[in-house]
């Protein structure tokens, strides 16, 4: 029996090693040119990893008793039925309003139409946020608001970091021929080129670096998080994004624990007309790398957002909280701090300064 158990373990190790070394999901290794930029970054520790601006622990008291709970859907961790969403057609994108229009695709995937420019942030449009369908939990809704083939041409894709729920191999494969340009944090270019995206279409950014397209300034700003695919960790950078034109300013937090960087971003680039703030997949056991909902609302105050929207929820189960917990707690804190908050259903339009959906649609689920 012992030999049998050892044999099974050995087989699992061999299969895992083959998968890790042959699956394209894990991306590629940086070119020499990228490595020079990575190693010269002030956010690189010189020991093969990027670092946060303040002390950040990946775990803050992990409990072994929590692990079995990740493999169950009980305790309202997933909705009992599919969530409401607007079905979109090609016509939707042909009539751009005068003000920026933002469309939520669930989790952190945001389609922004701004200054005649189509921008897709963290377009994770796959079914499972994992390197293999058996290694993750499926999307709450079986379908997207619109199929990838019916999306319009995309001027720019912004990526915040390389975790599977933000950078998805299958989504990039289907989107890459529609996209003119990719802006990514340091190190992520290697993943995209490995997946067939031409090198000249990708630009890498360190924190506080910026570039402009069609009159919009895009700034890669700090976040408090980590990165990694497979067994690697922190060999690529993570970031938030500022989108600023003469007429409008928008902030996207990426994944981030609460920290001093939010006030710094607000002081440098605020106030923002609208901010999309991470709110979901949190736990006290990893409190430095994801915000609690109350911190999410406070962070929107720190960046000086006129209106905020909780994101990083409503699509996948990646933590142990009830699926409605992020929006309920954020709503309560927003009311306490008198913060204006948008709560669209998936596929519903937000029009900056004009239309901010605010129904409590989750209460009927």
Automatic annotation (TrEMBL):
This is L-ascorbate metabolism protein UlaG, beta-lactamase superfamily. Pfam families: Lactamase_B_2. One of its GO terms (molecular function) is N-acylphosphatidylethanolamine-specific phospholipase D activity. Gene3D superfamilies: Ribonuclease Z/Hydroxyacylglutathione hydrolase-like (3.60.15.10). Residues 117-313 form the Metallo-beta-lactamase domain. PANTHER family: N-ACYL-PHOSPHATIDYLETHANOLAMINE-HYDROLYZING PHOSPHOLIPASE D (PTHR15032). One of its GO terms (cellular component) is cytoplasm. It comes from the Bacteria. The lineage of its organism: Bacteria, Pseudomonadati, Bacteroidota, Flavobacteriia, Flavobacteriales. It comes from Lutibacter oricola.
């Amino acid at each position: 029996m012992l030999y049998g158990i050892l044999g099974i373990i050995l087989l699992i190790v061999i299969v895992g090693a083959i998968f890790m070394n042959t699956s394209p999901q894990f991306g590629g290794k940086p070119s020499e040119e990228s490595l020079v930029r990575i190693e010269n970054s002030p956010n690189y520790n010189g020991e093969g990893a990027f670092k946060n601006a303040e002390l950040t622990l990946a775990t803050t008291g992990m409990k072994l008793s929590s692990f079995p709970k990740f493999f169950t859907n009980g305790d309202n961790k997933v909705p009992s039925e599919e969530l409401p969403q607007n079905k979109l057609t090609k016509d939707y994108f042909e009539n751009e309003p005068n003000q920026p229009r933002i469309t939520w695709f669930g989790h952190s995937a945001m389609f922004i139409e701004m200054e005649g420019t189509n921008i897709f942030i963290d377009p994770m449009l796959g079914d499972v946020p994992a390197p293999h369908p058996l290694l993750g939990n499926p999307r709450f809704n079986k379908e997207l608001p619109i199929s990838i083939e019916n999306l319009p041409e995309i001027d720019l894709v912004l990526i915040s970091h390389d975790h599977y729920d933000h950078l998805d191999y299958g989504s990039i494969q289907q989107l890459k021929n529609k996209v003119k340009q990719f802006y990514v944090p340091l190190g992520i270019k290697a993943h995209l080129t490995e997946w067939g995206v031409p090198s000249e279409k990708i630009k890498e950014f360190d924190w506080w670096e910026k570039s402009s397209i069609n009159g919009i300034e895009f700034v890669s700003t700090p976040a408090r998080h980590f990165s990694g695919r497979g067994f690697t960790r922190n060999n690529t950078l993570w970031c938030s994004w500022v989108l600023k034109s003469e007429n409008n300013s928008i902030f996207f937090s990426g994944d981030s624990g609460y920290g001093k960087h939010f006030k710094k971003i607000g002081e440098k680039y605020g106030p923002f007309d609208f901010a999309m703030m991470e709110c979901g997949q949190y736990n006290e056991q990893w409190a430095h790398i994801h915000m609690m909902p109350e911190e999410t609302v406070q962070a929107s105050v720190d960046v000086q957002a006129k209106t905020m929207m909780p994101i990083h929820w409503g699509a996948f189960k990646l933590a142990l909280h009830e699926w409605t917990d992020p929006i309920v707690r954020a709503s309560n804190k927003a009311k306490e701090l008198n913060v204006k908050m948008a709560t669209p259903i998936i596929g519903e339009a937000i029009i900056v300064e004009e239309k901010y959906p605010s129904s409590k649609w989750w209460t009927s689920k």
